[in-house]
Write a structure and sequence with these properties.
alpha/beta, Rossmann fold, 14 helices, Dehydroquinate synthase-like, alpha domain, six-stranded parallel β-sheet
Length: 365
């Protein structure tokens, strides 16, 4: 559905690439404060050398930038700069910039093209691909948005060298997710090369990034608007994760950290409901055991939280239908499905409690 290009430097020949995709050399470039500092000068120099006309926008590097107020301010700047529908928007950053940039592109002049230039592992493998763009509301994350596919997704794994370890592990959660839901061989590859990938060693890093991106693109192509349940499988672990993120006020817990915890919960739930066998459960848990969290984070943001309160907060998940939680479960490693029937609260609580025991180090065979 989107053209995904991975390489270093990925911005080489940008003018010709835009022309091939029917886009002009008039670009709004959206950074956050971090990506502007890290990559801005070089990227804007490239655009100048390629003959682009551009307007630079910068937002604070925080989740709060995904808001109506931030979007409204950026619309005003673009209008004042005479940006019209002949322009496009290049979003340079992680999930916040990608979501915000996509939301603005989808709504400005009823839609202008968006190009995603992700700079985090999470964005390269997940949020920049698939065309779901949104902003947050105080009552929930990503509740207001569009389906707006990027014309291009430009992935340069060398950008990851600027990331702290915490962000690498956060992104790795989505990478591992693809193995769980769609490709057992890829899961085995990740298990074998986990340390090398998290240390950004080549060729394993680029292989993991490209494989993840193409798995997501394939799923999105087959079910763009979540009409047959396939795209929903991308949310493995996310029903639990969104509850954790809400409790952490979308600030104190990275998305990937919440997803890592959520996948452990989903593995236990898949097993307890009779879908996933014990050997597969243990193998899945052994891979997730490799993840690292900042000191004390697991205790504060999961282990010390009352399981009933977590369950209550999961009901704010945008994926609930008729006040019913939707869980993505595994039949086997590499095959996920959306469970259509309701899950008893006691089963969800049991999975949460077992995950707490697992993370406490009391359970791993």
């Amino acid at each position: 559905m989107s053209t995904i290009i991975a390489g270093t430097p990925v911005t080489a020949g940008l003018g010709a690439l835009f022309a091939t995709h029917g886009m002009t050399k008039k670009t709004v470039v959206l950074f956050d404060e971090h990506t502007r500092k890290l990559y801005g000068d070089e990227l804007l120099r490239t655009l100048t050398n390629e003959g682009f006309q551009y307007k630079e926008l910068v937002v604070p590097a925080r989740e709060a930038s995904k808001s109506f107020s931030a979007a409204y301010r950026l619309y005003g700047t673009m209008i004042e700069a005479d940006v019209d529908r002949s322009w496009n928007l290049l979003a340079v950053g992680g999930g916040v910039v990608g979501d915000l940039g996509g939301f603005i592109a989808a709504s400005y002049y009823r839609g202008i093209p968006v190009i995603q230039l992700p700079t985090t592992l999470l964005a390269m493998t997940d949020s920049s691909i698939g065309g779901k763009v949104a902003i947050n509301h105080p009552l929930g994350k990503n509740l207001i948005g569009f389906f707006h596919l990027p014309e291009l997704v430009l992935i340069d794994p060398s950008y990851l060298k600027t990331l702290p370890e915490r962000e690498i592990y956060s992104g790795m959660a989505e990478v591992v997710k693809y193995g769980f839901i769609a490709d057992e061989d890829f899961l085995s590859f990740l298990d074998l090369h986990f340390k090398a990938i998290t240390e950004l060693q080549e060729p394993w890093l680029t292989e993991a990034v490209k494989k993840s991106a193409f798995i997501k693109d394939d799923v999105v192509t087959k079910d763009f608007r979540e009409e047959n349940g396939l795209r929903a499988t991308l949310n493995f672990g996310h029903t639990f994760a969104h509850g954790l993120e809400k409790l952490a006020e979308y600030r104190h817990l990275r998305h990937g950290e919440a997803v890592t915890i959520g996948m452990v919960c989903a593995l236990f739930l898949s097993h307890n409901l009779g879908y996933l066998d014990t050997v597969s459960l243990e193998r899945g848990l052994s891979i997730l055991k490799k993840f690292r969290f900042p000191k004390g984070l697991l205790k504060r943001r999961f282990l010390d939280i009352d399981s009933n309160i977590l369950l209550e907060n999961m009901f704010s998940d945008k994926k609930k239908l008729d006040k019913k939680l939707r869980f993505v479960l595994l039949k086997t490693l590499g095959e996920a499905f959306l469970l259509e029937e309701n899950v008893d609260d006691k089963q969800a609580l049991k999975a949460i409690d077992e995950s707490k025991t697992f993370f406490s180090g009391k359970r791993l065979h």
